[in-house]
Amino acid sequence: MRYLPKLQQLQAFQAVILHGSIRAAAKALAQSQPGVTRSLQELEQLLDTALVTRGSAGVIPTKAGQLFNSRLELIFNELERALDELEHFNQSASGAVVVGLSVVPILTILPNVLKRFKKKYPRSNFTNMEGQISELLPLLRSGKLDFAIGAHIPSEYLSGLVQESLFTAPYAVCARKGHPLADCTSLEDLQDADWYLPVTTMGHYNRFELMMFGQNYKHKSIMRGTGTAAFQMAIKEDYLTISARPILHSTFFAQYLCTIPVKESIPDAEFSLIYSSERPLTFITRELMNEFRLECKEYTWD
Question: What are phi and psi of 123, to 5 degrees?
């Protein structure tokens, strides 16, 4: 029977990788340096594998150490979730959930979702990380996110994941009110404008760029960042961007932004709920997912 590493050994290894030295790891763990060194050596002996190397740049993982650490992150993330769910079940602490959202769900459905969720679970803890789905997938796979909501992704990116369609949002080209190009009626008229688009490597925004700039879109000078930054640059610096129409119709953004009435039809975007098929969801995560499903059905997307 294979002997499993002790938790203290795993914590010592992860701390050394994170902090880059035995001394810093010992301080973080409130242990002695010899104790951390001993735990690391015992782990390497147990695994019969060198996990780290020591040099002038500090302690760095070997290739085997990198592989082991990537799996270890998943294990510790799952352990944290298991403890959190047990505490919530015992009502001795609040449940916690970490969600990745793109700008569209943040500015449309999130406020009502959190309002209902906090009313049901007032002691729960919610953390949101904003980004396009291409940025959120690595965090979801590593276990740092419980689930994500973003633009629908192709099936080849879904290994180990479940994708559930939530809603479809119509899109439009937008600019600040009074922009010199605000009355243009063709995308061709906007070719040479300054554009600020969300960062992505797949899906809806890529299709728009191909439609807008043709095969040369990869060579077009386009500023990119978060969806929130795109709105800021459109309002303050006269950039053009694209947005879901419900955002542009909201009370706040309707004060500053307008839809450019181009004759071309901007493709709608399908948004999905994405979560791991390999890790169990905590109770509080399942409850929050249900709140998002409900709000997507009730929200007016036209």
Answer: -100, 5
